[in-house]
Design brief:
149 residues, alpha+beta, Nuclear Transport Factor 2, Chain: A
Length: 149
């Protein structure tokens, strides 16, 4: 792995640490710092264009409400990898498991993140969530760990 790739790997690992921490803590402000508006969120049953802070907050409030009602306790990254598309664009694939209160898998899926470097920070501008069977291995593996405080 080249020096530049190692730098990007470290930056991407740090980015996803912040992302997962914000997600787990349901911290709207920190979560929003991980996204570039406008952005799109794709699931198998809907596509959402988020073009304003208000729409962002409503979408993530809906997501956080579902996770709270399901009593999700942990988020596990089964595997994660990325490819650098250009100096300012990265594609990442993360296979997630959301774990419920009885250590059961609430859901699992592959998420494909398109990230752009904006003002020195990596930010998500598109996320596509698909069935775990759609997972792919990109050029560089990376790790995501989260220790609940």
């Amino acid at each position: 792995m080249s020096y530049i790739s190692l730098m990007h790997k470290s930056a991407i690992e740090q980015f996803f640490q912040r992302y997962l921490t914000a997600f787990h803590q349901q911290n709207m402000s920190d979560m929003q710092q991980c996204y570039q508006l406008p952005c799109t969120l794709h699931t198998p049953d809907k596509v959402v264009l988020i073009a304003s802070d208000k729409v962002f907050e409503q979408e993530f409030l809906d997501i956080f409400t579902v996770l709270s009602h399901a009593e999700i306790k942990r988020f596990v990254a089964l595997k994660a990898s990325f490819s650098q598309l250009s100096e300012t664009l990265i594609l990442a694939c993360v296979d997630w498991q959301f774990i419920g209160p009885q250590a059961e898998v609430f859901t699992d899926f592959s998420a494909f993140y398109h990230l752009a470097l904006s003002e020195g920070q990596w930010r998500i501008f598109n996320v596509v969530s698909q069935d775990l069977s759609q997972s792919i291995d990109l050029k560089h593996a990376f790790n995501i760990f989260y220790n609940k405080v």
